[in-house]
Amino acid sequence: MRRWRTMMVAGGIALLTMCQPLAAQHAAIAPEAWAAYKAKFLDASGRIVDNGNGNISHSEGQGYGLLLAYLSNSPADFEQIWYFTRTELLLRDDGLAAWKWDPAVTPHVTDTNNASDGDMLIAYALALAGSAWNKKDYLQAALTIAQALLSHAVVHAGGRTLLLPGIEGYGAAEREDGPVINPSYWVYEAIPVMALLVPSDEWQKLNDDGLSLLRSMQIGPRKLPADWVSLRSKPRPADGFDAEFGYNAIRVPLYLARAGISDKALLTRLQAGMTVEGDEPATIDLETGKPKQPLTDPGYRIVNDVVACVTSGAKLPASVRQFAPSLYYPSTLQLLGLAFVEEKHPECL
Fold first, then answer.
1. Is the whole-model pTM more than 0.85?
2. CA-CA distance, 78 to 159, in Å (whole number)?
3. Preceding amide of 179 cis, omega within 30
4. Among 53, 211, 246, 286, which residue's beta carbon has the most beta carbons within 10 A?
5. Beta-sheet strands, E only, within the chain
6. How far apart are CA 227 and CA 241, in angstroms?
7. According to the model, what pLDDT value does residue 320 have?
C-alpha cells in the first residue's frame, strides 16, 4: 500500500497527501494505451461513453475515467472528465452523483439515484490526483463525496456494516428481501483513502465486513457470490435479479488484487469458480453452476491472469498485455489490470 500523511489546508480541514505520489514519478498506463482508450471512449465534453450500453454515461464510468487519467499522469484529461462529472452528475442535494446520463433523452439525467461504487471511485481518484498534483479543490471535492457516502450509503444491518448500492431502493425497509448489496461495489483499494478523508472506524468495519461476506458467499456448486445479494437472512441471490455470477462480480478478484488483499484461498476460489475452459472466465448460473456467457475479451481474461500473477507469480500472456479497446467495460478492466501489474508486479510482465 502507498504511504500517506495528512496536511492542513485552509479552514482547518485535515486532508491527505501522498508521501510518494505515483503520478510524480511515472505513468502506470502507457501513453499509447491511454490515447487509444481516450479515442474510443472519451467524448469531447468529458464524458466516458459506455458503448456497450446504449452510449450512456454513468458515475462508475466517470470514476473509472478519472482513475485511469490519474494512472496515465494526464492532468488535462483528468480535468476534462471531472468537469463533466461535477457539472452533469453532481446534482443531488446530498453530495452524491446521479448515476445515469443518456445523450438520447432530455433532460439527460434519467435516474437521479446514486451508484455508490461510482461515488467511491470518483472520490478516490480526486484524492489521488489532488495529492499528487497539489490540487486542493480536488481534495475538498473528494472529502465532500466521502462524507456523503459515510452519511447516506454506509449502513448497519444484521450486525454488519454495509454499503448500499444506491440510497434509494435497497434498504431493509424498502424491499422484502432487503438489505440488498452488490459485492462488487466494495472498491477495497479506495476504502483506506475514504478513511483518511473522513476519519471514522466505520470504514474499517465496511472493509472487514465486505471481506467476511465475500468469504461466506459460496453459492451453488461453483461457490461464487451473486452480483446482487439479499442479506435479509443468510446471503442469497436477491429477488428480481438473475441468480448469477455476472458482469458485476467479474471485477471482484481484480479489486482484491489491486487492494493488496492476499487471501489466496479467496482469490483462487473465485478464479476457479468463474473459469470454464482453460483460463477463460464466464458468467455463471449459480443454481446449476453452468456457464452462461463466455467472457473472451482480454479485459475479462486479464482478471484471471492478475490473480495468477499475485498468487503464483505467473506472467501475463501476450494476448492481455496488448491493448486494443473494444467495449468500455472490459477495456477499463484491462487498463486497471495492466496498471496494477506495471506498478506492483512488473515481474509478471
1. yes
2. 39
3. yes
4. 286
5. 4-9, 13-18, 57-58, 100-101, 109-111, 154-157, 160-163, 180-181, 229-230, 236-237, 244-245, 275-277, 280-285, 291-294
6. 8
7. 97
- Going from the C-alpha of 197 to that of each of 5, 13, 16, 336, the distances in angstroms are 11, 9, 7, 23
3-state secondary structure at position 246: coil
Catalytic residue numbers read 60, 117
**pLDDT score recorded for residue 141:** 98
The vertex-139 CA angle with 156 and 334, nearest 5°, equals 75
How high is the pLDDT of residue 279? 77
Spatial distance between the Cα atoms of 339 and 85, rounded to a whole number of angstroms:
23
Q: Which residues, in sequence order, are CB contacts of 92 under 8 Å at separation 6+?
A: 98, 112, 114
Q: Which residue has the cell 483506506?
A: 192
8 A C-beta contact, residue 67 and residue 127: no
Residues 6+ apart with CB under 8 A from 13: 140, 143
CB atoms within 10 A of CB 155: 18
- Kindly state the cell numbers that stand for 272: 476457479
Query: Cell numbers 448460473 label which residue?
Result: 285
pLDDT at 269: 98
Segments of the chain scoring below 50 in pLDDT: 1-14, 18-25
Is the sign of the CA dihedral 82, 22, 1, 195 positive or negative?
Answer: negative
| Residue 328 DSSP code | H
Strand blocks (E) in 137-243: 154-157, 160-163, 180-181, 229-230, 236-237
Residues sharing a CB contact under 8 Å with residue 233, sequence separation 6 or more, in sequence order? none
Domain regions of the chain by residue span = 31-340
Calpha distance 35→25 (Å, rounded): 19
